Amino acid sequence: MTVRLFTLFLVLTVSFLQAQTTSRRAGEMLVQLESDVTLAQVLARANAALPAQSNLIWKKDAASAWRMHVIQFNENVVDANQVLIAVRGITGVRAAQWNVRVDERALIPNDTEWWRQDEMELIGAPDAWEGSTGGTTINGDTIVVAILEKGSLLTHPDLAPNRWYNIHEIPNNDIDDDNNGYIDDYGGWNPRTESDNTGNNGNHGTAVNGIIGAKGNNGVGVTGVIWDVKLLNISNTEYVDEIISGYEYVWKMRRLYNTTNGAKGAFIVAANSSFGIDFVRAENYPLWCAVYDSLGQVGVLGIAATSNQNVDVDQVGDMPTTCTSEYMVVVNNTDKFGNKAPATGTGPQSVDLGAPGNDTYTTANLGTNMPGYASFGGTSAATPHVSGSVALLYSLDCPVLTSDAISSPATCARRVRDILLDNVTPESSLQGVTTTGGYLNLSEAVNAVRELCQAAVGPIDILEVRSDRVNDRFTFLYQTPNFEEHHFRVFNMLGQLMYEEAVLPNQFAASTFVLDASLYPAGVYVVALSRNKNVSATKILKI
Predict the structure, then answer these.
(1) What CATH class has 461-542?
(2) What is the pTM of this model?
(3) For residue 99, what pLDDT band results from cuts at 50, 70 and 90?
(4) Which of 349, 390, 409, 436 is the most buried (most CB within 10 A)?
(5) Cα dist. 377→55, 63, 85, 207 in Å?
């Protein structure tokens, strides 16, 4: 058999077998006819070659100009593969294939109001969700975001599933069960009342919570940037003393988690503050500013909203966004195209990046504890997009990124911050007025994590073959253009299929496939990696 004929056989075989594993419409196939034959002639020949009950008939034209048609057959009485083989062998048929369903290449939630959340497309969230939708770190730590607000309606059906609870505390027993210094902090903390009261249940806090972590893909309302996360609410943070006390609670809980290796406390990775004071200098608030370095040392990034006025905060002042901590990320507001909003603060030294905040559709308190959905805007809406993104990065399966989150929490927090800030989308209206010159791009941040963990992405290719003669094993290092299911197949030199296995490429590490060849006779074999019509093949020698 010549190399050319063998290659053709291999490609056709791979294509044929792949079709068997692909979702297809039962009892249908697509055929393309040669120019010198009619559809009636082809159907007659096909029905003559198959059992009478097969009943191949025309259904519709797929593309009549290209002589492509959809034909039907009775799959209940004849094997589908037998029909495909027979049709491909009929004189006058140029090509035949299954009528398969294609998949969207981005993960879209089924939440009913998702269609209103176009800002998620701007930041690349659907592509990022292909990598993760949240939950836990690679080490199994449940990811928590702290939200400092006056109050939030945490009974909202899109927030309640993701509300954080202190599982080591027994509610309402007037005892500090977990010895963290707080009594009955079961559902969060309220510095004003020294309890876990949720505050005024206001719309502002309800909206912020929803942008960060409304439960995703639950068929209800909207989705947050991160679908699965725990939302730890610090309520009644209206005065600076309450803000500092709230941050202290965050600091203590994350420090406790670190020191007990997760036995107590909470794995808080970000603290969202969608509040501030216009036209004040950071040097006049040294206690407040000092908090962010303390948070960073235990692994918590402070994510802060800058002013909703078109001012340079470096010049006129703003709190807390002019604090100089390296563990703070400051966010201004963009429209849904990434352009700087007319009324938002800037500052080439203090403001890090933009994020969409105009008319963000999110969870709302529409009245007296009346859950619903509404538009919400300003830097208060932009900032939680970044907080949710920080949390999502912690959920990626990349040991290089977060495996040291407990042993070296400050280093890990800075690494996550840098990934986010180094991968913004450049935007001319943010150039020179923010430290990065761009707006949040969660998809690019996830891609950067893949590169950090050496996940090979590109045209389908078997990059390297490593032979272990002692154990009769071959290891294949490969890359794929996406992280969907691919197939490895092994053929002998007669074109016979010897082995087949479906594989899922590793999103956050090198993709490898190990073949045990101990039962194969000595000889040359062809190993093919394929998805649909894309194939990469190489030869191996079994001694």
Answers:
(1) mainly beta
(2) 0.81
(3) confident
(4) 390
(5) 60, 47, 59, 9
